[in-house]
Amino acid sequence: MITFRATGLAITLSLLTAVVGYAQKKPLKIKVTKIAKNVYVHTSYKYRGSTKFPSNGLIIKTRKGVWVIDTPWSDDQSNQLIAWVKKNLRKPIAQVIPTHSQEYGLGGIRAFLAAKIPVVSTKLTAKRAVKDGYPSPKPILQKNQMIDAGNVDIQIFSPGWGHTPDNIVVYLPKQKLLFGGGLIKSKVTKDLGHTKEAHLKYWKRGLRTIESKFSQAEIVIPAHQEWGNMELVEHTMALLDRKMNR
Hints:
This protein is α+β, with helices and mostly antiparallel strands. Helices cover 34% and strands 25% of the residues.
């Protein structure tokens, strides 16, 4: 009898824990924020425990269609993005460009491919994507390339190995907007986070190049959390110095 009650209590507590956990982890919805003329930040989320962690990407409306920089974390959130573009921008998505092969760069690639939307990348990102178990993007991007999208120029630039071996940044000259991806950290970030694939020395060198090449940038978007200006580049270099000097 005692054993039965104990077991019943354990089952009840287990069910309560599961219910509470489910209640905490509500379905994840993307957020879209207009940040400049024809340019939006899409923010998707992934649970870390019971906390939602954000990841940023770009939606760029042009005369030749819509460009998406980095997919949301998941296929479900990528489908939300596709639906948002269709409803609000009423233009087809011309290309999706992942800035690197990690999950917050191309975690939603399958949703775009299923919708017959081209996903393109550098050769290195495509190679690493397959190695990590993702479908391969079309490896047609150059490491330094300007995409003429009519009324918007989209510049692709590889600063070399930094946060990952394949990381690129995207610059919009007319909007003076730099998307740094995982290479650049938000001011609220107190450390570099995941650095398993990073080369710290080259990372800092690449940031120096970015600082010089895109000195006119007024808006800087990191992969995670709050965006800002070129001070984010200095902040990231300070984090690198702290890490390397330990």
